[in-house]
Amino acid sequence: MKTHYAATATSTLLILLLNAVDFLSTVGLANYSSINGDHKKYTQFLLANGVARTPPMGWNSWNHFQCNVDEGMVKSTADALVSTGLAALGYRYVNIDDCWGELERDKKGNLRAKASTFPSGIKALADYVHAKGLKLGIYSDAGFRTCSKKMPGSLDYEEQDARTFAEWGVDYLKYDNCYHDGSKPHIRYAKMSSALLKVGRPILYSICEWGQEDPAKWAGRYGNAWRTTGDINDTWGSITSIADQNNIWGRYAGPGRWNDPDMLEVGNGAMTLEEYRSHFSIWALMKAPLLIGCDVRAAGTSTLRILGNKEVIKVNQDPLGVQGRKIRSNAGLEIWAGPLAGKRAVVVLWNRSKSEASISVRWKEIGLSPNTPVIVRDLWAHKFVSMGKQYGITARVAPHACKMYILSPPKTK
Length: 413
Prior knowledge:
Elements (H helix, E strand, L loop, with lengths): L6 H13 L1 H7 L1 H7 L3 H11 L7 E4 L1 H4 L5 H13 L9 E3 L26 H10 L3 E7 L16 H11 L3 E5 L8 H14 L5 E4 L17 E3 L8 H12 L10 E3 L12 H13 L4 E3 L8 H7 L2 H7 L8 E6 L2 E8 L3 E8 L5 E6 L11 E5 L4 E6 L3 E6 L4 E7 L5
Parallel strand pairs: 1-2, 1-8, 2-3, 3-4, 4-5, 5-6, 6-7
Antiparallel strand pairs: 9-10, 10-11, 11-16, 12-15, 13-14, 13-16
Helix pairs in contact: 3-4, 8-9, 10-11, 11-12, 11-13
């Protein structure tokens, strides 16, 4: 984990971003990306790819099922995304992770779906998912074998596999980093990026390099998302550590290219509801891909309420596309914030301590004038908590819980 991050620099940068909302709203997202990176290469990439203008949302099989995947489970999960209403909220990618294929390629060097678990093949499964109004994702690896060792990787087969994925109707590729030849990841990931751009099908390209070579600095040239951390697990320590690691790289994210702190653990059962709400809130604020990692078919009401919070989802899908970040931390009491479109801001008061505590934030800390009227909306209580002139907000926050607010200017007639 990197520890060189300076909180004061973060606060200053966030204030600058908040003060720049009017400017960004005026000049548009294309100009924002020119401020925030390699504009020429990025624009060319977007023109060729055109996906993930907001963080991708959907489901992935790994966190809950790992290698226990089959076509019946994938189909019933697609059905559940629709029947629960999650698909209508934006969860549209149905992503199969590792272990979907045979151990070896066929005689022509093609990847093959595992006959015992995907007897109808990936093309038929993609057709089923597409008929539901959803998109299908698949998994491969920038090495000779995938991380499970149960499938071939795509190293040296990039163009052949990209064509295969396109022919099958795949919409999303998660590309892992196991068992490779020792070459630099940006070289191996660039090869698959080029291959995907040649096939004539928009495929969201998710680079899973685990943050080892600081992919935020280079992966935006090649992919739509990149892992900034190692694998998540269903513990409080994991989500807090990963949030801090991902926080470092906020300036590299934006429409079409996103920092990925790994998939959601909400609903897998090892954390409390308050901890899951904090997990979901911070991932949404950080503009992380929102990929459900539980068994949607068995998700209870409380889990669905968290995953289905429309107001929190809107923060994640905000068109400005600026990653919110940590601006203050003291004894586990934290302030996270970021700008939103429409001259708004989002603020999370996060209590990472073991005791209930009051957390306060003053508007000047997040770049707002204390003399500016602000409407404050509580996104978990689904109500307005104050309107008019005030200097900030204070709330009592339970241990491991958070409060999440949107600050908006009053509407003018």
